Amino acid sequence: MTYRGKVQGGVVILEVGAKLPEGAEVQIVLHPDSEANAPTLYERLEPVIGKTKGLPPDASKYVDHYLYGHPKA
């Protein structure tokens, strides 16, 4: 038997209509798509961090200038 729910304030709130007998032993398994299992931004970007070479020292400040030719403002 499987019930779904979400954690709110450290407590599992089961879907509407879920009825468990008092004292029932349960096991919690996080859904693979759960945000709790999602990789961090660093983990997602780690493969490209530090890979660029030869950029101007002000590239981060004037990215639109270097990518699209916008004036340096």
Give a short synopsis of this structure.
This protein has two helices and two strands; from the N terminus they run E-E-H-H. The protein has 73 residues and is an alpha+beta fold. It has one domain (1-73).
Q: What keywords describe this structure?
A:
15% helix; 73 residues; alpha+beta; 11% strand; 2 helices; rod-shaped
Question: Would you mind describing this structure in some detail?
Answer:
The protein has about 70 residues and is an alpha+beta fold. The chain has one domain. About 15% of the residues lie in helices and about 10% in strands. It is built from two helices and two strands, in the order ββαα. It has helices spanning about 40-45, 65-70; strands at about 5-10, 10-15. The protein has a two-stranded antiparallel sheet with strand order 1-2. The longest helix is centred in the C-terminal third of the chain and has 6 residues, at about 65-70. The chain is rod-shaped. The N and C termini lie far apart (about 60 Å). The model has no long low-confidence stretch (mean pLDDT about 90).
